[in-house]
Amino acid sequence: MNDTPHPYDAIIIGAGFAGLYQLHSLRRLGMKVRVLEAAQDIGGTWFWNRYPGARCDVESLDYSYSFDNALQQEWSWSERYATQPEILRYVHHVADRFDLRRDIQLGTRVASAVFNEATSRWLITTQAGEAFDAQYCIMATGCLSIPQAPQFPGLENFKGHWYHSADWPHEGVDFRGKRVGLIGTGSSGVQMTPEIAAHADHLTVFQRTANYSVPAQNEVFTPEDVAQAKANYGGRRARARETHTGHYLIANDKSAMEVNDEERTKEFEFRWRGAGGGFRMLRAFNDLMVNKPSNEKAGEFVRGKIRQTVIDPVTANLLCPKEDLPFGTKRLCVDTDYYETFNRPNVSLVDVKADPLVQATATSLRTQSGKDYPLDIIVFATGFDAMTGAVKAIDVRGRGGQRLADTWAGGPRTYLGLAVAGFPNMFILAGPGSPSVLSNVVHSIELHVDWLTQCLANARAGGVKSIEALQSAQDQWVEHVNEAANRTLYPIANSWYLGANMPGKARVFMPYVAGIPAYRKIVTEVADKGYEGFVLG
Ligand code: N01
Predict the structure, then answer these.
(1) Which residues touch 96 (CB under 8 Å, ≥6 apart)?
(2) Which of 110, 111, 364, 449 has fewest C-beta within 10 Å?
(3) Which CATH number belongs to the domain containing residue 177 in this structure?
(4) Could you tell me if 302 and 347 lie in one domain?
(5) Are 352 and 411 in the same domain?
(6) Beta partners for 335?
(7) Is 382 in the pocket of ligand 1 (CB under 6 A)?
(8) Could you tell me which of 140, 142, 117, 141 has the C-alpha nearest to residue 424?
(9) How far apart are the CA of 292 and the centre of ligand 1, in A?
(10) Is residue 121 part of a domain?
């Protein structure tokens, strides 16, 4: 253990999109800042998730920083939906351009963060025992950073190889000549399926819940596309800021029930074939996520597409999401040739809801009924301890030694998704209680970083040493977040938005569903009223 902790104004935990922009912003205030990053390089999510086919489901022109016009003018995206390597190159470009690396410490996993009430400062200690003393502790730890995989007994004896989508070998995996089993049909599994199928001898997809997937309609940008996008970038960003999710898209302001069948199908077709992408599909009508009959129309449309695409009717039926899973209430998947892949002779689909996977043997995965699936490679695309996992993995202790993990045992409780009562001078970027994963998360990150940077600048100017959310303000916010969610269909699904994918995790809808403009208005008013709901000490 280091006796004299290194003193900083702020420690930022995580060097993904949020951590990098927060570092840049606080540096501009003249603060002494250090970023601690567990991985061996920067990039956060985009460092870890390098599985075949990994790409963002938000368009590259939106999924990028807007804070610096020169940056967005000099960087050229090559595709509508960028691949993981391209996004990682962009992150590196940003780090180099703004000379961020000198304040980032890689390979450094934070073990604990303890608040000192006498000094109003945080003692942040790494797993290696290095200690940092900082006025502010900023969690830029990401919403999807702690991989989650079923603990199959016998996996340790499996003679082949197994991988998780979020911890993928840097050298890649050679699937040629191999029998591959893929568990999970969320965004990661859906993206990987066509890529693995193209190389493996045989791919078995183990599906527990059929989810909805819509085509990305990805395209390679021509030089003219890029020039045009750059010429209109200001307008694009301005429009994106005002949409519900912070994306540049056209939201239809009609209900799916106020139009006739022909008009409804035309709109869905336009979004399926032309516009593409999940967020555009969710905005095909203004009530898809709040009105069951409207939602069901979207669900039926996708099921129709699956039945048209997949030749074998049994497989098609199995791939069709059931009616008890409303459209879009689990994160809508965005794919390229996912359903088409099940027409390949080397791909099979297994229903592991009917007959769950229960164990691994030396050479296979075995289901409850005793059926063995012989495999050379197992791929887990089984998701994450989302939204709270990375924060709770750190032993965070606030006022009176209270542990954040205990405070959040019944689900995350925040004020504005930014701060937690009892944990002064600690902030969370794009975490639970904010639009976060329901939005263009880079936009949400910028919103949070800009708000927090201004808050800390004001605190410094006013001689404020401690900023703490009031318990009453937090309670009201949590209630508001829940009410907003309960007005939608989202809570019906057993999704990771609710923590339902994690055994034993409290079932609480974690992101704020009312949209970016509404959220921005609230946080702006809070600041304008002298940080209402916070105690400035
Ligand atoms: O994880 P998931 P993900 N036996 O939790 C199944 C973002 N993302 O990594 O639904 C069998 O969505 C589980 O089944 P069920 C995006 O926000 C974005 O795919 O729980 N199956 C489910 O099918 C996304 O939502 C991009 O019944 C088991 C799957 O594993 C989030 O990350 C790309 C099982 C997990 O799906 C997470 O996506 C990738 C078991 N024991 C990710 N346990 C893009 O931008 C779990 N499952 C495109």
Answers:
(1) none
(2) 111
(3) 3.50.50.60
(4) no
(5) no
(6) 215
(7) yes
(8) 117
(9) 24
(10) yes
So what's the pLDDT on residue 4? 84
Distance 369 CA to ligand 1 centre (A): 24
Is there a single domain that holds both residue 528 and residue 453? Answer: yes
Cβ(388)–Cβ(139) under 8 Å? no
**Measuring CA to CA, which residue among 38, 36, 9, 32 is closest to residue 122?**
9
Structure tokens belonging to residue 308: 């048209």
- Rounded average pLDDT over 208-224: 97
What average pLDDT does this structure show over 397-413? 97
Compute, in angstroms, the gap from residue 237 CA to the centroid of ligand 1: 30
Q: Do residues 427 and 452 touch, judged by C-beta distance below 8 A?
A: yes
pLDDT at residue 364, as a whole number: 98
CA of 254 to the centre of ligand 1 (A): 31
Of 338, 501, 505, the one to substitute when testing ligand 1's pocket (max ligand atoms within 8 A of C-beta) is 501
Average pLDDT, the chain: 97
Q: What pLDDT is stored for residue 537 in this prediction?
A: 93
Give CA–CA dist 417/431, Å, rounded. 6
Give the nearest ligand 1 atom to 334 CA.
Answer: 48
Judge if 218 and 317 occupy the same domain: yes
CA end-to-end span of the chain: 31
Ligand 1 pocket test, pick from 87, 188, 218 with the greatest ligand atom count within 8 Å of Cβ, gives 188
Ligand 1 pocket, residue 436 CB under 6 Å: no
Q: Is the CB of 134 under 6 A from ligand 1?
A: no
Q: Specify the pairing of strand 161-164 against strand 377-380.
A: parallel
CB 171 within 8 A of CB 51: no
Residues forming beta bridges with residue 131, ordered by sequence position: 125
C-beta 465 within 6 A of ligand 1:
no
Instruction: Tell me which residue range forms the domain holding 231.
Output: 213-327
Same domain, 313 and 379: no
Mean pLDDT of 469-485: 98
The single-letter DSSP state of residue 330 is: S
- pLDDT higher than threshold 80 for residue 465: yes
Nearest CA, atom 13, ligand 1: 184
Q: 90-102, pLDDT tens digit by residue?
A: 999 999 999 999 9
Report in angstroms the alpha-carbon separations of 239 from 146, 249, 517: 33, 8, 11
The number of domains in the chain is 3
pLDDT at 3: 65
Instruction: Establish if 332 belongs to a structural domain.
Output: no
Q: What is the mean pLDDT of residues 468-492?
A: 98
Whether the predicted pLDDT of 2 surpasses 80: no
CA dihedral 92, 94, 98, 99 (to 10 degrees): 0
> 352 in ligand 1 pocket by Cβ < 6 Å?
yes
